[in-house]
Specification:
Layout lengths: L8 H16 L2 H49 L8 H16 L4 H10 L6 H25 L2 H21 L3 H29 L5 H30 L1 H20 L12
Helix pairs in contact: 3-8, 3-9, 5-6, 5-7, 6-7, 6-9, 8-9
Length: about 270
Amino acid sequence: MSPISRLPGRVRALVLACVAAGAAVPSGARGDELATATSTSTATSTSTSTSTATATATSTSTATAAAASTSISTATPTSNQLPATLRGYVALAALFALANSTDAFLLVRAREVGVSAAAVPLLWFLHHLVKTLAGLPGGALSDRVPRAAVVAAGWGAYALAYVGFAFARSPWQVAALFAFYALYHGLAEGAERALVSDLAPAGLKGRAFGWYHGAAGAAALPAGLLTGFLWEARGPRVALGACAAIAAVAAVLLAASPLVRRRAAST
């Protein structure tokens, strides 16, 4: 006798009904249900992983864009106004430009001292030769020491040369002074422009050079008029001496400024 036959009647009927229901479901259907559940779980897991990866990539790209935006905003000047140090240097350059009258006055002075008309082109050639030779070491020097110090030294050489021209008495003295005068060009001309570049912010260099050349150009006309007036009214010594005095004042003010403690931007 089977164990089921020993059960009470109602319990035995319930058990037999459950067994019959289980037998009616094919085994393949149960496998399909298991496979469907498994695939559904796998798809859900894959979708969750994809969403997580997408969110991570979006967060990373957002952080990168924010960093790039911060970098750009940092590199862009916050103001269109030139720095105070640059404005002060441009003012000193304009002051020196008042002393930097045309070199034609020096050629006239050479003729007054006794240099022949045929020797004047030779003096000019000597001046430009020394200017070229002095320009190379002058530029290298401004890369090793503060540029303002090199510019101040060049302006000082200009002042000394003009004092010499004012009191020169012979052609050989004029020839030596033309060679010495070229030291100003070799020391100062390149360093003057390089100092503007050092002091100007990255986005305002064009404006800085515009102000620098504009100030020097604006002072060129009154410089020539002042020198010519003094030459006619008081003589060459007073005219050239006045140019020397203005150049010396500009050189001293530049040498006394904080710019002489500022190294070149590349060092």
